[in-house]
Amino acid sequence: MGERNDRSGEIVPVTGRPSLLDDPDTVDLRSKVDAAWLDFRRSLEAALPAMPVGARLTVTLDPTATGTGEAVYDLVLRVLSDTGLHADAVGNAGLPEEYRLDRVAVGDLVALGWSPPGVVEETADRFGLRASMDDAPSVASVVTRTLRDVYGAPHPAFLTYTVVGDDVVPALASARPVAAGTVLPAGRAVSASTAIAAIGIPLDEQVRAVVAGFLKTDPESLQHDEDGEFSVRAGSAMVFVRINDNPQLVDVYSPILTEVEPDERLYERLSQLTRRMPIGRLYCTEGTVWASVPVFGRDFQATHLMLALQVMTRLADELDDRLQGDFGGKRFFGEGDKTGPRTERTGMYL
């Protein structure tokens, strides 16, 4: 249930459509995601009345973690007075063309209570909303629904936030403060990464959300294989994401070539390429050439996994073609590939 704020400023209930799939196989994950968003809404609801007049809270969907590139989906909340709140949200004028909101999304914003750009004072090209401090619960609900249902944040852990004009940085559930430190409800100052760990979001949930963001799909609809691994096709290559418990790592890897007859020349080439790679390694074992980029599971950072996926998908799709041309073998999606070695080519491969 959302809230609608019409141009007169009155807040009234409005019914929204479900934001998650009803597949019974995803009920457990869905409930966890729902609970995380509920925690975020409640913490935001509690934080707003505690902010001093003039304070500004900016909440942003982390573009690095979600793979939205230069698109920055953000909302700003300001305390105008002891009794008044102002909020504005990014519109199409502030987004790259390929990430702009379609008509349905714009309609959803209006239904949630946002006035079109420029209607509310001091909003310019952004959607706006004005409310009394008594309506902080409704504003928190509108903000949460906007981030989740319209801007597509898969989980509050993919949100970052900054506070200007307040000495105390509130803890907004699993969202991450951009400042060097934050204050948990108990009053203990900790770093942002420690705050995330204290929330206790399971690693598999975080990994699922990152992979879903990379593939631009819902975490609830993302499927894994019988080994619990996620797969991402990259042209003629396949990239897998696996969680290892001991040591706790997230391995992003790809079988670049299979049915290879390794020789000294191949091992030398893989060694040279590995030295050029900024992260990860290439190696050959039992007739298969592998590429791997590990990410630490302890103090997990979603941005690191997103970077690993970006690197691996580009690398695997290019490298399997080049190595197959020089050393034979078969690519993952290389129907008709011949396994015998070919004449070596020269040149840069990364």
UniProtKB/TrEMBL annotation:
Identify the Pfam families for this entry: TY-Chap1, TY-Chap3
Query: What's the domain of life for this entry?
Result: Bacteria
**Span of domain TY-Chap central:** 203-334
Q: Cross-referenced InterPro entries, in alphabetical order?
A: TY-Chap_M, TY-Chap_N
Segments forming domain TY-Chap N-terminal: 36-159
Q: What is this protein called?
A: Uncharacterized protein
